[in-house]
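Re: beginner question about structure tokens

> Can someone show what the tokenized structure looks like for a real chain? I only ever see the sequence side.

Sure, here's an example I had lying around. Input first:
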Amino acid sequence: MTIQSPDVLVIGAGTAGAAAAARLAEGGCSVVLADRRPAAMAGARWINAVPGWLFDKAAVARPAPPERVRAGNTHASVLTDNQGRFFSVVASDPGLHVDMVLLTQRLQQRAMDAGVTFLQGRVADIDLDPQSERLEGVTLALAKTHTATTIRPRLTVDASGAAATLRRRVPALADACPTPTPTDICLAAQYQHRITDPAGAQDFLAAHKASPGDNVTRMGPVGGYSILMINVSEDLTEVGVLSGSIPADGVPSGQAIVDRFCAQTPWLGQRLAGGQAPIPLGQPYTHITAEGVALVGNAANHVYALHGSGVGMGLIAARVLADAVTSARDPGDAHTLHHYAHRFLRTYGGRLAGSDLFRRYSQTQTRDEISSLLNSGLLGGPMLTAGLLQTPFDADLQSLITVAAGALRHPRLALGLAPTAARILRLQAAFTDYPAHPDPRALDAFDTRLARLRRF
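And the corresponding structure tokens:
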């Protein structure tokens, strides 16, 4: 057994982990990046739509082709109900459909260029200080040599995604960050297919008032929290099919929804690439640090639950963490790490929490109820745009008039939605009061306040 003592150990070499490792190393830290899979197999394996502003905030260069697979002009998101009936068009971000394999590779290469060491291995054990319970060591079972190495960093970052490899093992985090229940797990799938009949694809787009490159997004295809998004390339040669749902609610999985759409669509041909994975939903954890350890990405529930996207927020969290600790004498010190939690959660926690509260509301709705809500006008264009782009909703006069008109036409729907909308606004505001210091009493009081607002 060998022992290494870098400044930082990052567990998980997907986008959040690779970005954190790169940023920390560029800031002067010695970093080891570990994953149970080979580096080339780490992270998501599909095409993901990521708003461009998230890359900018994360200080990660926006993707360029071939990493950016839709390189044309700004495209629209054409939204329909579960029966394919058109209800809205939202001008989207400039077409940032990103090949996650290539993005992960770029971030890993950036980390290696900064001097990061990569190890393939799984976490076999951890070592906690018996008095302070600070995480002091992690033992990795190495895949290639079938030996173990113990790493004793000053800071360990859990970027292991839904596996939450360290979060589940560190008592202070395991107690404060409950494992998502089955009704908080989205099973998502996304695949690229060759188009065998361009005319058929063009007819599909025309039927949905869409153009090549646009996203045609069917909301609630099986009711509740579910989505089906079809993106036909500008040259009509490929199509991306994405879906996600929560099977614990008694509905088909994202994979099953994709498979059904493909079986019913004659202009789809060979499956080229893609994959499926569970995505943890839920409120963002308010305890994302402990002595010697920090959580980023899906391990911290940094997922915009409205559409199950965690890539951009994970990249931002990686930057905020690195900015908070790289100049510190002890990057694993509780007060140093709290600067990360404070800045990230005050800025983005309310947005994530509000998104998840609406997700939970949608799970209570049937297919017909979702369809009625979508066609009511209660969710205006600016709201939908904010939801797609993961930005705060900035209500202007016209959008308020549209919502008010919808409420007059559909008073029952408005009354049903109003309590959830009010809670979302209060929840978003609450995160601006996230405690500035790692005071256990203040954090407990904050959690109690959130629990009341989250109550459905």
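Each token stands for a local structural state, so reading them left to right follows the chain. The CA atoms of residues 243 and 257 lie 6 Å apart.
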